[in-house]
Design goal:
Oligomer: single chain
Helix content: 25-40%
Shape: globular
Distance between the termini: 14 Å
Strand order of the largest sheet: 1-2-3-4
Order of helices and strands: EHEEEH
């Protein structure tokens, strides 16, 4: 369905996080609202709707954040929506 991403991160982190969010969530039938931000050096990915989950990545490199976010999102989304068909 659709992924609505609110907020902006510094480049290239913004591009990496957006690509992961779209790759993991676009194929799902549910609309998802996500807020991304940088707080005190940490990257925060807040899944606002349809569920409320906040993910925080501390002082990690861009590539690490991308891999961790992908893995965590897969687990959360599979748990919340069921495995993709």
């Amino acid at each position: 369905m659709s992924v609505n991403i609110l907020g902006v991160l510094p480049q290239p982190l913004d591009t990496i996080v957006r690509k992961v969010l779209h790759r993991e969530l676009d194929a799902r039938p549910q609309a998802v609202v996500v807020e991304i931000s940088r707080q005190h050096g940490d990257v925060v990915v807040h899944l606002l709707e349809p569920f409320d989950k906040r993910l925080k990545f501390s002082q990690a490199a861009e590539g690490e954040i991308g891999r961790e976010l992908s893995s965590i999102l897969t687990d959360i989304v599979d748990e919340e929506f069921g495995a993709p068909q």
